[in-house]
Amino acid sequence: EIIKELKTRQKNFLYCQVDDSPDLLAALKRKYKWQTVPIVILKDTNSDEEQFIGGCQDTKAYLKTTE
């Protein structure tokens, strides 16, 4: 659902499927203190800074604020 939203808004994004990578998923959950997927992070590719957005509903709300 969120992928469709990002495509519709013509946003650049990287999608990482973690179904077969339980260790990676566990590490991401620990790092961002988030227990559900998706885990959406905004990353500035120039500065390498990250901003944790949240899950699906959080991302939709964030996108509305950036219209």
Distance between the ends: 18 Å
Summed up, the helix count is 3
Strand and helix order: HHEEH
Q: Pairing-aware structural class of the strands and helices?
A: alpha+beta
- Share of residues in strands: 5-15%
Q: Largest beta sheet: what is the strand line-up?
A: 1-2
Shape: globular
The low-confidence parts are none
The main β sheet shows up as: 2 strands, antiparallel
Overall pLDDT level: 94
Features:
42% helix, two-stranded antiparallel sheet, 13% strand, 67 residues, alpha+beta, 3 helices, single chain
What do these coordinates show?
The chain is an alpha+beta fold. It is 42% helix and 13% strand. It is built from three helices and two strands. Strands 1-2 form a two-stranded antiparallel sheet. The longest helix is centred in the middle third of the chain and has 11 residues, at 22-32. The protein starts with a helix and ends with a helix. The mean pLDDT is 94.
What's the layout of helices and strands?
Blueprint: H1 2-8, H2 22-32, E1 40-43, E2 50-54, H3 56-65
Antiparallel strand pairs: 1-2
